[in-house]
Specification:
It is a single chain. The chain is mainly beta and about 400 residues long. About 10% of the residues lie in helices and about 40% in strands. The chain has helices spanning about 1-15, 140, 170-180, 240-250, 355-360; strands spanning about 25, 30-40, 45-50, 60-65, 75-80, 85-95, 100-110, 130-135, 150-160, 195-200, 205-210, 215, 250, 255-260, 265-270, 290-300, 305-315, 325-330, 340-350, 375, 375-385, 385-390, 395. A six-stranded antiparallel β-sheet has the order 1-12-2-9-4-5, covered by helices on one side. A six-stranded antiparallel β-sheet has the order 8-7-6-3-10-11, with no helix packed on it. β10 and β11 (about 205-210) form a beta hairpin. The termini are far apart.
Length: about 400
Amino acid sequence: MLKKRVVAAVAAALMAGSASAVDVSREGTGDFLFAPAYFIGGGMTTDLKVINTSLTQSAVAKVVFRHPVTSAETLDFLIYLSPSDVWNGTVSCAAADANGNCTRSVITSADDSIQLEGSATFASATNAATIVSDNATAGSTGRVALPNQGYVEVIMGSAYDVAPFRPGVLKTNILAAHTAAPALVGVAATPNILTGSVTANAPGIGAATLPLLALADYDNSVKVEVGILSGLDVAGQRTPVRDVEEALWTNNLAIPYTVGAGKVSLATFTFPTKLTYDNVTNGQYPFTAKTCIAANIYDNSENTITGATFNVSPLPTAPQTCLDEFQWLVFGSNIATGSFTEGWARLNFVNPTAAVAQVAVATDSTNVGRVGVPALVTYMVKEASKFTWAYAASTR
């Protein structure tokens, strides 16, 4: 009888829908998406695209822009996606100060998956949505301009079964379903159906597109709303930060480069789990062990040199090189390439890293003491008529 009771209890728990282990999606679809970076200012703009791949379910998701230094939530809005729907938007800088820092940023979307700001009306080709963040009006709006770069999250709010359960569902009906939904989101309500891309547009060079990195089975449990903080560190989430760090853990990265006249090669780093100002302890950043990035540089003929190392954290330990939650290193300056003009670099996180949640609950993670870091690492190569943006691959 006891065995039957145990089996029944386990079955009931499974039917209730417990969270699965979060991981980077092999298929590129998930319930939590990351754009490792956006770029505005100096003529640069960034396009975002989010796709609902479900043929029958509608979905509401929250788009969150995060600060490059602190991961603070700087701007958020909801998108309403019918089955097979796509949302498109562009972020740009409309004004800047003498140093090129954006003072007025604008999100523009003529897509009917987003509402006009402060209105229940959805945007259209003839009535585009514009979300303006202006330092001059920050006193009344509470919103300053977006930084020139940062990163973006797309958090699945919930999927809804809205008639007629196929492309063409009215956005007003999706809005009504989301408004009526409870504050607690069930596991089954966050299927892995979102995907998308981010495109950086550089004047005189062209555009480079990167798929959004998709986490599967994150299982957001908090109803998404505008103006309400969302993210990995919000109380009540099913998936702890440490599990996301497990999914994003990386090391030994292969990054191609080319340097010389008219050529720029960057390695970009996004640390979405540092969440600096939410986790400061005794003035230190969350990574309590000093972590360095070491670069081994190769040319196309397998010749090699050893490059410099860069601290990732913590503050205030010097040298304070690689601190922000999003930043880049430039080949030929930050990462010396010697006489090599083309080749690849093997970047290593050379010290064991204790990550945010692992500091407090070290026994809950297999990554404590492992060399590596939870990061999104990409490379960008800009040439006269070519602009490449891709995720860095791990070496063996």
